């Protein structure tokens, strides 16, 4: 884990937020490579779920929502931790982490437990009072539920169908940590999939398989991924059933978080990447009651009117990125030298190809390299680097996961070909210059 | 304007946030089509500025930042409106909107003017006090400045180079309105371009041209776009020069907003889409002073150490979307019938192609249509619609800007061809089924 954290900072994947001011606890910034990786991950998810399916529509709802939303969802009344403070060392703990009502760190006495709501508050308008109080959304899901009827009307979708959304959510976490695993500001990729009551468990099972397979497809090793169905007593108040897709992180996590699904963990490194829940008709029913708007679905074929059940595959983007980084990191021995490789899936790799001229003082070579880079840039993210020896340049690209390195050498001047090296096999192909783009695009298909 | 607002709601571009609860003032949700349009716009901007250039890196910083950031930027002390309340009707106004110190609505007396900070506050941690106070970023720019040194170190970029970022920002606006033009939650696309002092005005001019051309390239009509250099007295405290790229919106706007650039307007519909400012070394200097970290750049060639100047092209995504929607909207007469067309640039159009089977009861026709749709879905966003007559189906696609409609008819069964209709010319091509994908992909190149 330390290696990943250090690589992330050094190469510009992830920086601590506001680092020059000592950092802001549990918030993170994605640097140049991290921003690309995140973009690629979101794009892969959106393509798989919105573009390649015919039963899902996208949505992009605001972070600030009407406070009634959180009354309906139950977050105002029950999205809470029970906390106690140590009277000696003044640290604050969740009650379930106390050891026989003693501080787990110094053994001191603790205060009476208090309820603590996890939503971040803000005030809209000029006066700070109850009327202007609102919250930063603690989950993206509710933005979908309140728009359910709008989307049905505008898109003419028929049940079963889903609404997909990617966006930021915020939680005033007390116990944070493990790098980006649990942070106060995080990004979710969520689908609310609306189905006819009675077909819900079947769809729930389908989605568990579908989402598990997605992580495997994009490169997570099977042995590091598992499905963990929740026990009855773990289920959130709205859920009929729930399965976590867990990844075996190189750290130990503990502490279940309910009722949200963004942080339960079963220890031993196995921690939630995504939760798939059967939320029943809980949310729509609640919103219907509070808003007094009719949120029922009218089935034109059967002439029935009903509140649909909802299956929710809800993934964390930041922890997925952490999983993809961790899982793809490997160290190899090549000719007695250590080679660090980030074996990221081609679709996720931040840089698709690096152009490395062998002699940076030969104008003709530089010219070929730069013109190739300019051409490739129209189709993919490329990097041009001539600031070190070729061995070092390869190592730099390997450790950020660049699938292809292209070297321009003296021979290129006569044969008009370049060498394309594969990150994983390290095999080299000699490809003629006008063919390079097509050669690469084919690999990325 | 009313037509745009109504189209946006009806077809699922933009909904009022939390509408079932009466809405949350000045926040908006992007529906299925709006979410795609926004994705496409962001992608186009990112491609133009990050992928296709070799001198810009991306970044994705958090919304929550260390509060010292906003001390350094000047937002804590001077990001304010001066407001007064009407004693009769209790409404609140900016002082510059008062009429001879009387309420502009009811003519009543007003209170003494008060300063009102425009940043949204929140509290991190269990206690709400000065120590836990932080803000939702009012601009994305500062996330770039505090990471300047991190990005230089990780990316080895040499000046001149820029850092690009897309992300949400928040302002506690008092006067909001004009649909999505000014909202409390909005998204920015910003570049901070770092240059050597002395070359700053030259780069500033380049960026003004570059950004102006970008809007034209993606379809904004020249007569609706203009550059408006700021007068000396309009300049923000950090700016040496600034030019707004203004779009002629179909509404009248007034009220300059300083010192931020997200809302100045010169009346007559002409309003800011993007501001390009020469921010000098103001921000880096401020952060250097407050953090006591050395944020100077070391030029290896000249062995000089200096604080770079910054050129900032800062665009608003929501108001750009509004401009692209407004600008592309047209009504035509076709055979005595009104045709509403959203002539969006192909890269921006939410749906790239619609598959419309002429006879939905003929299984073979439906089969061809669905299989074509499934094939195209791997490469682009497509829609399959068979729920109305062909005339109506065309109209539906025209008004959401779909560049190509593909009809499957009885002849398709024998000649294995389909008809591809161009949105703008309404010309029809007969294309053989296995060629359709390539035919379309070529059009989108």
Q: In words, what does this structure look like?
A:
Chain A is of the alpha+beta class and 445 residues long. Chain A folds into two domains: 2-65 and 135-327, Bira Bifunctional Protein, Domain 2 (BirA Bifunctional Protein, domain 2, 2-Layer Sandwich), CATH 3.30.930.10; 351-444, Rossmann fold (3-Layer(aba) Sandwich). Helices cover 29% and strands 28% of the residues of chain A. The first copy, chain A, has helices spanning 2-11, 32-51, 68-72, 75-78, 141-146, 148-155, 200-217, 282-291, 317-328, 363-376, 390-398, 410-415, 436-444, and strands at 14-16, 28-30, 56-59, 80-85, 92-94, 114-117, 120-123, 133-136, 161-170, 185-195, 225-229, 241-248, 270-280, 297-299, 304-306, 309-316, 329-334, 337-342, 353-357, 382-384, 404-408, 417-422, 428-432. In chain A, the strands form seven sheets. A seven-stranded mixed sheet of chain A has the order 3-9-10-16-13-12-11, sandwiched between helices. Chain A has a five-stranded mixed sheet with strand order 20-19-21-22-23, sandwiched between helices. A three-stranded antiparallel sheet of chain A has the order 5-4-6. In chain A, a hairpin with a 2-residue loop joins strand 17 (329-334) and strand 18. Chains A and B meet through helix 1, strand 2, helix 2, strand 3 and strand 7 of A and helix 1, strand 2, helix 2, strand 3 and strand 7 of B.
State the strand order across the main sheet of chain A. Answer: 3-9-10-16-13-12-11
| Level-1 CATH class name of the largest domain in chain A | Alpha Beta
Largest sheet of chain A: 7 strands, mixed
Identify the quaternary structure here: homodimer
Mean pLDDT score of chain A, rounded? 92
Q: Could you say what the CATH topology of the largest domain in chain A is called?
A: BirA Bifunctional Protein, domain 2
Spatial gap, N to C terminus of chain A: 32 Å
Largest interface: A-B, 87 and 87 residues
Task: Name the poorly predicted regions of chain A.
Answer: 255-263
